[in-house]
Amino acid sequence: MQAPTFLMAAGPHEKKMTDKDFLQQVAAIVGPNNILTDPAEMAPYLQDWRGRYTGSASCVVRPGNTEEVSGVLVLCIANDHPVVPQAGNTGLCGGAIASKSGDSVVINVSRMNGIREIDAVNGTMTVDAGCILQHVRDAADRQNLLFPMLLGSVGSCEVGGLVSTNAGGTGVLRYGNMRELVLGLEVVLPDGRIWNGLRALRKDNTGYDLKQLFIGAEGTLGIVTAAVLKLFPRVSASVSAMVALDSVSDAITLLQELRARLGNRVEAFEIMSAPQLAIVLKHMTQLRNPIAGNAPYYALIEIADSHSQQDLVMALEDVLGTALERGTIADATIAPDLAKATAIWDLRHNISESNKREGFTVSNDTSVPISRQSDFVARVHEKAKAAFPEAHVCFCGHIGDGNIHAIIVFPRSLYNSPEEFEAAASRANTIVHDASVALGGSISAEHGIGQMHLHRLPRYAAPVELDLMRTIKRALDPKWLMNPGKVITPD
Ligand SMILES: Cc1cc2nc3c(=O)[nH]c(=O)nc-3n(C[C@H](O)[C@H](O)[C@H](O)COP(=O)(O)OP(=O)(O)OC[C@H]3O[C@@H](n4cnc5c(N)ncnc54)[C@H](O)[C@@H]3O)c2cc1C
Known about the structure:
Blueprint: H1 19-30, E1 35-36, H2 39-42, E2 59-61, H3 66-78, E3 83-86, E4 105-108, E5 115-119, E6 124-128, H4 133-142, E7 145-146, H5 159-164, H6 172-175, H7 178-181, E8 182-188, E9 194-197, H8 211-214, E10 223-230, E11 232-233, E12 237-245, H9 248-262, E13 266-273, H10 274-283, E14 297-305, H11 309-326, E15 331-335, H12 338-349, H13 351-358, E16 360-363, H14 373-387, E17 392-398, E18 403-410, H15 418-438, H16 457-460, H17 463-476
Parallel strand pairs: 2-4, 3-4
Antiparallel strand pairs: 1-2, 5-6, 6-10, 7-11, 8-9, 8-10, 12-14, 12-15, 13-14, 13-17, 16-18, 17-18
Helix pairs in contact: 1-3, 9-11, 10-13, 14-15
The structure holds flavin-adenine dinucleotide.
């Protein structure tokens, strides 16, 4: 599909408009209520969730449909305005935040929040990019189906952001990350053309798989306006448990045992170190540790299936009973009903908020092969504690995917300026990234590169990888105006 021709009026070689004319033309496309220029109104769109990145912009635009996105994009590129795509603004590496240059245009897709189609027989849902994840899950649920993506920001993050960060979350173990949950995409390219790749096919080998280019591209190659998502049968029974463990390697042994005996009924398997749990309990006073005593690590487990609830509880009790006898786990509590399960999972889902309240957080999102996580945690703990004795060194997250987040929480009193904190954050990141890459791992498992790791990628990626990424970027965005300063530098 081509962009409507009237929108192509400002060609790349034509004289640039004045700022006033530019803003007027944008307003003519999206309507005057959907372009913000007042600093106070723009502020929430120019700062990230953690308050770590703040930018400035010429305007924030909230288009209502794909054609409007196309029209605005054409104007921006013709007039050399950097474009920052934004959805729910819950990203954790500054990808949706404009630079401080002041000439950026933030294109926020949140108004585009319709569900275009649910095909229950095909097991697919076609949604606009501004749909909030919770609404997608609710819509699937009403059809007795499941969209399995689940993360702490479920009530705010949107499909455009989930696609563009290739988000993970707690369901990756069984269902995969966004790359595996997206069947098709609609994307507005930097030249304004609309690529309608909304195919709802599980098998499609017609040349390059173009959607994968845009998944995880963090808005640097185009603007995602809609997606076809894969749905699954809704599981009717689910049981959760929390177990106390002496070590990370015991957690991995338990995971192997669970998978060997319960197959892909293992829906989630997450870890929390004792210092991390202590921070959650300190700030979320309504939550409790259901296990008495102190253990160095805790694993949170969910088993789900369409068998009876009782069968599932018995199956989990059986595996955990054996693990207790063998000494793999120190203690366990099973949550057979939804209320008790929610109480356990609330501990996990409140980690980010609790850490934010505790201090300055340096959250790392590395992954290593599952078999090397014990080594990874030991190396990071030793080096980070030596470098930052006053900080909490915490571990939590998706151990079943090799993606343990090493989180260093600094007391706020420690640093007098953002610059001092950023310098400490950079040292902390280097400790964690070096340990990960030395063990065959990645510096970003699910949050992306954004602006946070822009200058770190060249340290860890092979020159040929960087060269391929720049070649793709230039082919689609020759003026390098799509979300510049994110993911990859021009040289
Ligand atoms: C409490 C909490 C818990 C979290 N837990 C997890 C977790 O477990 N796993 C995980 O993976 N992430 C997690 N996150 C991070 C975040 O929620 C995800 O990265 C999410 O995918 C971001 O979605 P968003 O709609 O907020 O995107 P935004 O923050 O708005 O944008 C993220 C990136 O995508 C780009 N983008 C946004 N919309 C578009 C579009 N329409 N087209 C092109 N590019 C676009 C932006 O430019 C930016 O680079 C968590 C965040 C919070 C606050």
